[in-house]
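Researcher: Please translate sequence to structure tokens.
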Amino acid sequence: DPGCPVLVGSSPAPVPAPAPVQPPSIPPAAAAGLQLMNMAVPDDVPETQISSLAPAQPVSPVISARHQAAAAPAPAEPPREAIKFETMQDVFTAPGAPTEEESRQDNFISRAFKLASDLEDELGRKVYFNLDGLEEAEKRLRLAFIKNKEAPQANLERVKDTAAFVCYFLQERNKGRLLKLTEFDPWGWPMIFERPNAKLVTYPVQRVWKLLWQENLPEPGWLAKYSAWIGDKLSETAPLPCGLAAVKARAMSHPERLADAQTEHKRMIILASSLAETSGIEIGRAGIIKIQLALRNNFKQGIPPTADGWKLLRCYGHLLAAILAKEFKAAWYNTDGDDGGWSMQTPWKTFVFPLGKVYKTAANGEDLPAYFEALAQDRARTIGA
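Model: Translation complete:
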């Protein structure tokens, strides 16, 4: 049965997601409808046959415009053009690298220079944007939270200062470029690192912002470890296991990678709450049927989505992931590679691919309610709940 869950043996416990935050105000895009499909593509395209729990593939079925045959006896089949699936990495485009003067004039990044100056006054020596300076910025922040945990506004300002220091440090050290999304608080701003054959999207501000969400402080040196992870990622010469291969190999993503996926998930859930097309979808069993209806009404099999369509598909995928987390306690397991292959693990060691499932439901007309019920039955068989 293609709807059967993927069962794999025990693996490391997933990293918990950060506590929820209040959604921002609804952006103007929410008021307007989104164009979902590229209607220039013909609709008489055969469906692909892919197992329903396998991740979405990076390339969709090939389709092309039909040409009229010049004459009998048998027209030749025209060449077909492959349609590439959009991935999360494609969504973000880094702006040009800012100069130091531009950074000093930036309302957010300029906080880094202010913090460096304050540290110099306290320490009586020069503070640079290097690992030593990062350690001093982290120490100052930890001490402030230990002494004044009940000062939310002051702590927010300290978090912003330290986050700006981290961002400028990564900008100078690894040529990262911060993308400031006006619809979100800084925790949802991605930083982009580009190399000739690789692109890394990560959320440095979240690494500091989480102090506002968590009861306990991270272990000392967590920002230096994050910096080291970025350096290791940018020096990788071969891709890590991802998708179904990672599940079969029991290859859980690095905790820093999972933290980025959880932040991306939080960002997309907040975005979904602000869009007219997705704001009415409940995070629960009833939401499954609404997602199914939306996919059937707005996406046509064999027709690639537009940019707006991909934006909505990604929202539906994260809504499905949130439902699986609520109903089945699923948690992110491997989020390396394209997001169609991101996996979640349930407590009874079943793996699911929520974004890939939504992508394939839109492309192949699969049955989300049946998929949900299959998971519920699998849980009942496995743990009797």
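Researcher: Any highlights?
Model: The chain has 13 helices and seven strands.
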